[in-house]
Amino acid sequence: MKIVVxxxxxxxxxxxxxVTSRAVCAALRENGHQAVFVxxxxxIPDAPEPLERVFDAPDGLCPPAEIAEQAPDxxxxxxxxxxxxxxxxxPNVLELCRLSDIVFxxxxxxxGEDGRVQATLDLFxxxxxxxxYLASGLAMDKAMTKRMMESAGIPTPKWQILRYAESDIDRLxxxxxxxxxxxxxxxxxxxxxxxxxxRDALRDALRNVSGYGGEVIMEERITGxxxxxxxxxxxxxxxxxxxxxxxxxxxxxxxxxxxxxxLCPAPITPEQQAEAGRLxxxxxxxxxxxxxxxxxxxxxxxxxxxCLEVNSLPGLTGASLVPKEAAAIGMTxxxxxxxxVRQSLRLDRGV
Length: 351
Prior knowledge:
Blueprint: E1 2-7, H1 14-30, E2 34-39, H2 74-79, H3 93-99, E3 102-105, H4 110-113, H5 116-123, H6 133-140, H7 142-152, E4 159-162, H8 169-175, E5 180-184, E6 193-194, H9 199-208, E7 216-220, E8 225-232, E9 235-236, E10 240-244, H10 251-255, E11 260-263, H11 270-287, E12 292-299, E13 305-311, H12 321-328, H13 333-345
Parallel strand pairs: 1-2, 1-3
Antiparallel strand pairs: 4-7, 5-6, 5-7, 8-9, 8-10, 8-12, 10-11, 12-13
Helix pairs in contact: 1-13, 5-6, 7-11, 8-9
């Protein structure tokens, strides 16, 4: 099959997306597909004629990719594209997608998980991997996900939306309950998440979180073990326990070697494995997610699970969690990528 692996974009998770997409593209090519790596924003400005020849590229157009300790400079990415177009889709991207048999969404963050790209592809009748536009948008918005969790009876920490101006920060920093978590509703890869230990840190968090976009959530801070559970098709994968080296599973811990230990399957009881899987599947289905997802939990000292959020396009890098969960049931990385493609092609998008 001719497969466009759509990468990059302009979200704060751009670097993660590039590494995911490079690995996916290589795996699909090893599986015999004509897979090519295409940057959503930068596109392919010097494409051959006819454009379909791009699928014959011997290397799949895969560039070097790595995840630095800091999030990427998105303004530098904008500046690197010629012209003054404000379009999210770069040169020849939509045209290539329309020539493909399916688009593998290697995107992460707002540019890939908020439903806009999915809606665009739907309008052009282009098949793609993973969930549709509505479920993706719901899952990307942490406030909407919280409301859906509550409607389905899924335990989640107490929370509230904060709407404030700069002049309100000092008052909020003195009156909000502690300990708490401050996060933006549309962040990912632990970007835009703050865990203040005192009221000075809370003041800084309230000031800095606005830089990540979206609304601001204040959430009750639960102490417990960090676990995550992938869903593939109609089954939950084994839970993973994450033990960060520095105490917090932040952006560096997620993607830098030695940043965290990941125990898969998690050292929890069979009953706890079953409950984590049940909750992950329940949230997946409640939101209308399709093919695959990954849900993050805390397991408190009383053995109760608290659901934090769900990822509609979880990472598929070498350090990512869903591939490790798939490996725990005997599925190779290449088989995982192929299964995602196969299940996605069977979906009826209603277009």
